[in-house]
Design goal:
single chain, alpha+beta, 19 helices, 25 strands, 39% helix, rod-shaped
Length: 699
């Protein structure tokens, strides 16, 4: 049994799982690995009891040197019949060992369920809120939550999945990126100290983007002109030409201004063409586009082209754009951006092949309009703080230049090889250093990455450069065995993502740590009313209590615990029955011995004490041996049982617990059993009077 049990234990420790893979690739429980603890309990207990006779002999020699007869009588009896007492000791040790293992497994599983729940949720409560006013998932500011009396700490977290972590540009390896603010996250998140230090990216100071608006606008207006860039050759000399294109300016380009409100939210304001300079009498600018439906004959199409040309005859090419703000909370202007659509935008000069511009846009006279109609010019387009950024595809490029046609203007020249392109002018948004991030260790080892390495990933169509500042195996709510992950500085990551003019990335999740004694389930149910805000809803709320309820209904774990307790109860019951039976039989068989001792003047109380020492020696040996077996097997076997029914590892791993309270209860049970044995012995001896005892031998 020892050989078989040891082999099973070694295999269990080497695989870290009681599950094995079948020939068909399925995962199923290995019976040999599951019965390894039982085999080792019996084998180690049996072999350890080989030392019991020697132990009894040592005790007998010790009491022989002491004054008094009680201890010597008890140890002499045990040393003369060690086999009888050894059997009872073995049963008791088995009961104690199984009880220790069962209570440790229950305590470990209970601790693991709490740890798994905390790791899965990440905090006591994890919220995902929807900002209906801006049409996006966006958490409120942290002081909003910490103002609630039940909340001890709060952290706003940015999460994004389906990020391709592959570095070879050929494969796809989807993973997760979590953006956290170190200080608030450390106070709010769940963590277990034995998992190591909670590695977090360092804090980063990011610059404030945009410019403060001098007035509270109701509308934003700007002038735009689009020209097609071409070339003509005269005497072998190329001359660049510029042709006005009202169709592109009014119907095949979408314009936007991005502003920031007082709460830090982006307002992506569409700028709509209102009228074209020189043809103010045309209120429907779609009339400037040849209607494709009029293609019946060549004459009809020619007439349609002549109609558009006649309308555009006096046009200067300048088109006025205007957008109405949905709210009056805009406090900063962040960027201007636009998008060109359809194949119409690809019609440009052959110079595109050489990288020359095919289109030129001029923006001028940016202005704010308040509710009363008063216009406040923004003389910022000629400033040098603008940066051009491609917002759509790599198959396009753009450059900025100063406009000399109008005093307050800016020229953008670009070419594109795709059907669609997007560009934006970002104001006062300098490039920052690589975003510091902690990557999971397995991903780093697979890609030969070390601390200090730079990793380029595409996040929301935006290239982001990360610097590895640490490696970790675990992080709340992230599982390396499911997908690679990185934990980046939230503010730095959002700053880089929001440099793309059309982007609006926010921290979507709120991680809340509640005050001690506050139920996370009750708090979450009352939360919508507690943080109720206009046009804001709670999309989902993950709670520690909810996750724990799901884990506590695991029928496999509950059944295994039940079997262990049944085994403990059976072993303990067999031990008690065997001990009481043995005491009754030996008391009857030792009546002659008792008679002689009583005749020599040994009081019945000291006789009972001698029997008590015998049983105490058995109990003490059994308790020590059972505790050693239970502790040894619990520490060796339980960590390898931290797997789900599918064979997947449990995160975080088991942390072996010793249930002191349950062990104390079992100790009380054993003391009660010992007391019952002693009481039975007293009753047997008390029933024998001295005369009856002396006559018993004659009969």
């Amino acid at each position: 049994l020892l050989v078989v049990g040891s082999a099973a234990l070694l295999r269990l420790l080497s695989t870290d799982s009681p599950f094995a893979e079948t020939i068909l690739g399925d995962v199923q429980a290995d019976p040999l690995l599951l019965i390894a603890p039982a085999l080792l309990f019996i084998a180690l207990g049996s072999i350890s009891l080989r030392l019991f006779p020697a132990l009894a002999e040592v005790c007998a020699r010790y009491f022989m040197t002491r004054r008094g007869l009680t201890g010597a009588l008890a140890t002499w009896q045990v040393s003369r019949e060690p086999a009888h007492y050894g059997r009872i000791t073995f049963l008791l040790a088995l009961a104690v060992g199984i009880g220790w293992f069962a209570t440790s497994f229950q305590a470990t599983l209970t601790r693991s369920q709490n740890d798994q729940s905390g790791y899965r949720v990440g905090a006591d409560v994890r919220l995902l809120e929807r900002d209906l006013a801006h049409g996006t998932d966006r958490a409120q500011r942290e002081p909003t939550y910490t103002a609630l009396p039940e909340v001890a700490a709060a952290a706003s977290v940015f999460r994004i999945g389906d990020v391709n972590f592959s570095l070879d540009n050929f494969s796809i390896d989807h993973g997760y990126i979590l953006g956290v603010e170190p200080e608030s996250f450390r106070q709010s998140a769940y963590w277990r100290d034995d998992l190591g230090e909670l590695l977090l990216p360092p804090p980063v100071s990011v610059p404030e983007t945009g410019i403060a608006l001098p007035t509270q606008p109701s509308k934003v207006g700007v002038w735009v002109k689009i020209e097609r860039v071409g070339e003509v050759f005269e005497d072998g000399i190329a001359t660049r030409t510029y042709t006005l294109d009202l169709t592109a300016a009014t119907n095949y380009t979408s314009y936007f201004a991005r502003l920031i409100d007082a709460d830090g939210a982006f307002i992506n304001l569409p700028l709509i063409p209102v009228y074209a300079e020189g043809i103010e009498d045309v209120t429907d600018l779609s009339l400037l586009v040849p209607r494709s439906s009029v293609r019946g004959t060549a004459l009809e199409w020619q007439a349609e082209l002549e109609r558009v040309a006649a309308l555009s005859e006096n046009a200067t090419g300048w088109v006025y754009l205007e957008g109405t703000l949905p709210t009056s909370d805009a406090v900063r202007l962040d960027s201007l951006h636009w998008r060109t659509y359809e194949q119409y935008a690809r019609f440009s000069s052959p110079g595109n092949i050489n990288g020359d511009p095919g289109w030129q846009m001029t923006l001028a006279d940016l202005a704010l309009i308040d509710a009363s109609g008063e216009i406040t010019p923004l003389d910022i387009l000629r400033d040098e703080g603008w940066e051009i950024i491609n917002d759509w595809d790599r198959g396009a490029q753009a450059v900025l230049a100063t406009s000399y046609e109008r005093e307050n203007g800016r020229v953008v020249s670009w070419w594109q090889s795709t059907d669609r392109a997007g560009f934006g002018m970002i104001l006062d948004a300098p490039t920052i250093a690589p975003v510091p991030a902690v990557f999971n260790r397995r991903y780093a080892e697979e890609n030969n990455l070390i601390v200090g390495a730079l990793v380029d990933l595409f996040v929301q169509r935006q290239p982001v450069r990360f610097e590895i500042v640490g490696l970790t195996d675990y992080f709340p709510s992230l599982y390396a065995e499911e997908a690679p992950f990185a934990v980046a500085n939230r503010d730095a990551l959002l700053y880089v993502l929001n440099r793309r003019p059309g982007a609006a990335a926010y921290a979507q999740e709120a991680w809340l740590r509640l005050e001690p004694g506050v139920s996370s389930a009750a708090f979450a149910s009352a939360l919508p009313a507690a943080i109720q805000a206009e046009q804001r809803i709670v999309k989902s709320a993950l709670t520690l209590d909810g996750a724990l309820d799901q884990l506590q209904t695991d029928s496999l774990a509950l059944g295994l615990i039940g079997l262990l307790f049944i085994a403990f109860a059976v072993a303990l019951l067999l031990s008690v029955v065997s001990l009481l039976t043995y005491i009754a039989l030996t008391a009857q068989g030792r009546r002659g011995e008792f008679a002689v001792l009583r005749a020599l003047g040994l009081p019945s109380g000291r006789l009972v004490t001698s029997i008590g020492i015998e049983q105490a020696l058995v109990f003490l040996t059994a308790i020590i041996l059972g505790a050693i077996l239970g502790l040894l097997l619990s520490n060796q076997v339980l960590p390898s049982m931290a797997t789900s029914t599918t064979g997947a590892l449990i995160t975080p791993p088991f942390l072996v617990q010793i249930e002191v309270g349950a062990l104390a209860q079992y100790g009380i049970i054993l003391l009660i059993v010992l007391a019952l044995v002693l009481v039975g012995s007293v009753l047997l001896i008390r029933r024998l009077s001295l005369a009856q005892t002396l006559r018993y031998g004659d009969e």
